[in-house]
Amino acid sequence: MTKDLPSIPAEPRSAKHWIIGDPLPSEKLEGQLLPKHLALPIFASDPLSSVAYAPQELLMILMIGGLAFLSFAPWVALAVVVLLVTVVASYRQLIKAYPSGGGDYEVASRNLGEKSGLVVASALLVDYVMTVVVSVASGVDNIISAIPELNPFRVELAVVFVIILAAVNLRGVSESSKAFAIPTYLFISSVALMIVVGLARTLLGDAPVAESAGYAVQAEQLTQAAVILLLLRSFASGCSALTGVEAISNGVPAFRAPKIKNAQRTLVLMGGIAIALFAGLTTLALITQVHYAESACNLIGFVDCETKPQRSLMAQVAAATFGNNTILFFIIQAATALVLLLAANTAFNGFPLLGSVLAKDGYAPKSLSTRGDRLIYSNGVLLLALAAIVILAVFQANLTVLIQLYIIGVFVSFTLGQTGMVVHWLRALKQPKPDRGAIWRGLTINALGAVMTAVVLLVVTITKFTHGAWLVFLMMPVLFLLMLGVNRYYRDVAREIEVDPTTMFGSQGDHAIVLVGNMQKPVLKALDYAIAARHESLEAVHVSIDDEQTRQLKKDWVRMNIQVPLRVISSPYRDISHPLIQYVKSRREEHGSEVTTIYMPQYIVGHWWEGLLHNHKARRVRQKLMLVHGVTIALVPWLLDSSELIYGRRSRPVPGQDRRGEPVRPVRPVQRKPIAPASGTTTRNRPPRNKR
Amino acid sequence: MTKDLPSIPAEPRSAKHWIIGDPLPSEKLEGQLLPKHLALPIFASDPLSSVAYAPQELLMILMIGGLAFLSFAPWVALAVVVLLVTVVASYRQLIKAYPSGGGDYEVASRNLGEKSGLVVASALLVDYVMTVVVSVASGVDNIISAIPELNPFRVELAVVFVIILAAVNLRGVSESSKAFAIPTYLFISSVALMIVVGLARTLLGDAPVAESAGYAVQAEQLTQAAVILLLLRSFASGCSALTGVEAISNGVPAFRAPKIKNAQRTLVLMGGIAIALFAGLTTLALITQVHYAESACNLIGFVDCETKPQRSLMAQVAAATFGNNTILFFIIQAATALVLLLAANTAFNGFPLLGSVLAKDGYAPKSLSTRGDRLIYSNGVLLLALAAIVILAVFQANLTVLIQLYIIGVFVSFTLGQTGMVVHWLRALKQPKPDRGAIWRGLTINALGAVMTAVVLLVVTITKFTHGAWLVFLMMPVLFLLMLGVNRYYRDVAREIEVDPTTMFGSQGDHAIVLVGNMQKPVLKALDYAIAARHESLEAVHVSIDDEQTRQLKKDWVRMNIQVPLRVISSPYRDISHPLIQYVKSRREEHGSEVTTIYMPQYIVGHWWEGLLHNHKARRVRQKLMLVHGVTIALVPWLLDSSELIYGRRSRPVPGQDRRGEPVRPVRPVQRKPIAPASGTTTRNRPPRNKR
Questions:
Q1: ipTM of the complex
Q2: Where are the transmembrane segments (chains A, B) (predicted)?
Q3: Do B575 and A613 touch (CB under 8 A)?
Q4: CB < 8 Å to A642, chain B
Q5: Would you say B217 and B292 are in contact if contact means Cβ atoms under 8 Å apart?
Q6: Using CA atoms in the order A374, A376, A379, A380, what is the torsion angle rounded to 10 degrees?
Q7: If you measure CA to CA, which chain B residue comes closest to A669?
Q8: Is A339 within a domain?
């Protein structure tokens, strides 16, 4: 009955494999490393996709003051670009200084302390939820801009997309597949094409004109302070273009060698593309005179403002440049929507990575520290999706409000990360033989970045607190306390199970019980193994819940001439656990503190749904038995035929695995408590028999 | 380190205990048996609560033909009462003939065949979903009738209530608590009071008048066939008063002795009360001239028919009898809403019972056959709640449409159950010495019931198919195929693990491995137990994923002078499973087919959330190890301090447990395949050492 490991079946190469990727051999260890051309789509979809909404929000806030304020737009956009450049430069340094993938969290923990690190972690977790929310809301916005009849179903569409994303990630899909790369490159090229064509037309004298160019806006009378505040708010909204830049700092281990250089180059390339698209799109929006207001009814001349939606800035520019409802128009809308969905997907892939970093430090369940446990991971996906759905429902998928919430989380981690880097450079100055030039350069960049991001954070918090920002300031402390709680719990448990000089064991006696139900092969195997282990005493125990079944068992026992004595315990209530527990306890009272090993079969199955049909009663019995002193449960596996599926099964991708890569250098040592000095006495009091 | 079982702490008797019940000792076996006064609320809430909507639906359908048709109402109501009496009488017989609690499913399976039984089971499962849906929708209807401002939130309210019910049942609450009994008795008494007062006022000449008495209805011109169809539809809608009568037949084992008589008495009492309330309410509705139309806009004279809701029949009668917005009015509305929620709750308690019956026959996961596995049960609660929410959302909590769907499921099981009883009596005729009188009496009752319920089923199906009944005819086959699939699966597995003469085992060699991570107490315990078991050879294995950790372990090993040899296996990828598996396999290649027992600590914890923080990595390693030939896993429990909570912990009620009771007579034998005759040779080839 030998089951040798069959060779991995070779599947013919098909279109499916070209798109989704080769099946991973089931013994594959850490994820494959990423070449730059696949790394770019994975890490760039978030920052690039924010180009879809950042210019829109920037212009929209300016227009609150009236059409004249649009003249400030170039300056505000320039400020955003400057900040983008600063942030990219900052992360370029962070990658070099901390290439192990800890990102902002690691920088803050190491330089500002445990609590600051946790604040960053909380902010990042909130950030992930908001990434899903904003990206899906914007994607739906673009879809509705292409098909306005869908407008009444805005929220429902958004919820459906979140559900689809969750389902896909529960199944597991590899980010490095071409299915992810194509939309990103399509988006980049089509938007770039649009910008080029638009500018070309302008130069040739046939400047495109947006459909909303004709609408005016009620200008507000603003005090000087209000004007400055408006400019700052517009700047803050434009800064949503920065979201997602930090993702690469978490994924450095995933790059091919030389990791640091490749990561830096990808970061710079990504930043460059984002800047180009952002600047180009904003310019084109100003040229085509897109007038996008906070609410459609603010536009003078907009009919049906209650029901008809404003088209997104991207849609308006595309319609103006390429013509309304042309092929290229729909391509742009589709690419935009797709890349936004991909950006939402990055949240599902990013948080396991964050989770593993937190787990290594003891702030998250330990099972996340390696490949990630599918159970905990699935719970995480569901939580993330649920939070996103609730927020979308509560805020009715209103992009403007949601972006404000988004910015807060992102800029908290930006600010703390930059500040941490400043402290890092200050410490570097104290090292022997510091490279003063490089240090001061780095210090300046990071300090500038820290100040600018702190200003943005302050502005958004003040202006949007009552509009929903309080939600973020509620979620973050909750997560903070949760992580702190997990850490303190693990510390308490470690202290509890720490070995001390008084630890004494000394079981005597060795009794084995084989739990027998029907006479079936798994039971025979368990008997076989129990016999092979040569316990001091061995018996088979059958709890009788069905007279007919017991009679049959006794007959079979005799017929098969099994030499192990069979003990039948009666149970009137179809309950196996309690009579068994009573029996074990009474034995212990007789025989003293012996070790009782209870052999039970465990079915190994191939399909997930078979898990609902096997092993549950056994597990219930087992959980109760383990509360009894001196009991050990020995699981004897029985592989059902379907378990052959597990061999050579294509390993389901665990999300985030493409970003894990391999460690860049030896993993940081786990902090342990010093072990109390032993008294030197032997705690082992019986040598094992090592003959064979 | 002995942990003796502490005595159950005695809690002072408080109001909480008076309402919710005494804490069940953790060693309590099957649920306590029910006295009649507690059984009535549990089983009666469903049929009694349907009094809240049945008269309303009956009158509403009649009014489609115009106000004149209300003169048919007494006759239609009489027909419903006759059917009620017939059905009660039928179930009274069923209880006597099949007291083991299988109900309609058992009757159909035994008399009409496996497939008919499954059809009944599918219908009952759909019935449970619809019980939740209709009860919640009606409860919300009554709440809105008391507080009309809530009308725009009808669907949301319904969904919230379903979520609350699901949460309560996930936590587990005992049905036999007084918290359940009070609303039912309150409902019965207050509605009875209302009927008495209403009739008294009528006799005294001050007949109450409903608020809708003044509205007329557009009379339709109907052909004679249409008139008959209308009457039949009205009858069918009125038959929704029958739903829930069958629940007692599933709960006979839960009654105190003499079970059959007590169950019959409770059934008759319940039927009597239901008939009285139904007849009384219908009479009062006709006296007060309640005009309830299918839609508010059908009522001539009803202002604001788009937004203002019609008040339920119950509310209108109460308002007319007691006065609008009086204390008694609100009491009736509250009691009605509460008893409807209790009725919805019965679905959550009924399906585990059905599940256990199905599991015993192999149509549902085996773990349901005893107390019910919390995992599978929780999945069931969630599925039930989800299905209910989806249906409520899709049909916008429209009571009329939903009731049609409800009736179909209920009447499928009624019809098949009655038909099964007819076959039962026909078979009884063929028995030696049949009691012809009793048999013919029973046959007549059940045959009449079968015909009447079949007619209702036909009418509803034909008239409502396009209005949503197709949904029921979709859900039932799906469930049917699922159950059939489970049954065939278990049969295949049984055949797979059947012992045959060629079954040979014969492991040789007995090697034990203790998996060691850090030097902590659980590991020491595992070592201790492994040593106590006296395996032929024993070694400790450490997979090195952290150099520092490995160094520390080696130092501790030496310092503590542990006599078991420590083998260190390196692993560059923080992966424990694969190096271990490679090692075990290479040993087997060297030493032949030996049994390798791998000892691993398993944490036992007190809180549910601790389960997310422990044991996951170990379980992943374990699952992979069990695929390797010759491996047995020995789990060595380590009880963390928090596990003390499990001792003496109040046993969380598993829903449905109050209805399980104890078996009435020996359980029906599990059908087994005949075992192939053995060749008589010994398959055990090594006697165990039984010395001590």
A1: 0.73
A2: 58-91, 118-140, 152-170, 182-204, 224-245, 266-287, 327-354, 375-397, 403-426, 438-462, 468-486
A3: no
A4: none
A5: no
A6: -100
A7: B548
A8: yes
* Closest CB from B528, B635, B690 relative to A635: B635
Distance CA B375, CA A623 (A): 13
A626 close to B (CB below 8 A): yes
CATH number for position A52: 1.20.1740.10
C-alpha span between B602 and B606 (Å, rounded)? 13
At A222-231, the pLDDT tens digits run: 888 888 888 8
C-alpha of A629 from chain center:
41
Pairing of strands B631-639, A631-639: antiparallel
Complete DSSP assignment for A594-645: -EEEEEEEEEE-SSGGGGGTSSHHHHHHHHHHTTSTTEEEEEEEEE-GGGGG
Of B204, B138, B519, B513, nearest to B343 (Cα)?
B138
Nearest to B563 among A522, A623, A687 (CB): A687
> Tell me, what's the pLDDT at B657?
66
Residue B428 inside a domain? The answer is no
Q: Which residues 23-62 of chain A have a CB within 8 Å of chain B?
A: 27, 29-30
A686 contact B CB<8A:
yes
Chain B residues in contact with A586 by the CB 8 A cut-off are none
Q: Tally C-beta pairs within 8 A across A and B.
A: 315
Q: Give DSSP secondary structure letters for B254-295.
A: GBPSSHHHHHHHHHHHHHHHHHHHHHHHHHHHHHTT----SS
Residue A10's pLDDT is what?
Answer: 40
- Test the A interface: residue of B163, B379, B497, B642 with most A CBs within 10 Å: B497
Instruction: Judge whether residue A690 has pLDDT over 90.
Output: no
- Return residues 499-518 of A near B (CB < 8 Å): 499, 503, 505-510, 518
Query: Is B615 inside a domain boundary?
Result: yes
Query: Which pLDDT band holds residue B374 (cuts at 50, 70, 90)?
Result: low
- Clarify whether residues B518 and B379 are in a common domain: no
Nearest CA distance, A366 vs chain B (angstrom): 7
What pLDDT does residue A462 have? 82
A160 within domain boundaries: yes
pLDDT confidence band for B573 (50 / 70 / 90): low
B399-430 helix and B54-63 helix, angle to the nearest 10 degrees: 110
Task: Give the separation between CA A405 and CA A416, rounded to whole angstroms.
Answer: 17
HSE-CB at B35 with a 13 A cutoff on CA atoms is: 4
Lowest-confidence segment of A345-354, B100-109, B340-349, B639-648 by average pLDDT: B639-648
pLDDT digits (tens, 9 = 90+) for B507-566: 777 889 999 988 888 898 898 888 888 888 899 999 988 788 889 999 988 888 888 899
CATH number at residue A598: 3.40.50
Q: In the predicted model, what is the mean pLDDT of residues A503-522?
A: 82
For A518-581, the DSSP string reads SSBHHHHHHHHHHHHTT-SEEEEEEEES-HHHHHHHHHHHHHTT--S-EEEEE-TTS--HHHHH
Judgement on whether residues A379 and A527 belong to the same structural domain of the protein: no
Total number of domains in chain B: 2
The DSSP code sequence of B584-639 is HHHHHHHH-S-EEEEEEEEEE-SSGGGGGTSSHHHHHHHHHHTTSTTEEEEEEEEE
Q: pLDDT per residue over A456-499, tens digit each?
A: 888 888 877 777 778 888 889 999 999 999 999 989 888 888 88
Structure tokens at B190: 């207050």
Nearest to B510 among A532, A602, A629 (CB): A532
CA atoms within 13 A on the CB side of B45: 34
Q: Which domain covers residue A639, as residue numbers?
A: 510-660
* Binary contact (B634, A636; C-beta < 8 A): no
Tell which residue, A387, A407, A394, A395, has the closest CA to residue A462. Answer: A407
Q: How open is the CA angle A441-A447-A453, to the nearest 5 degrees?
A: 135
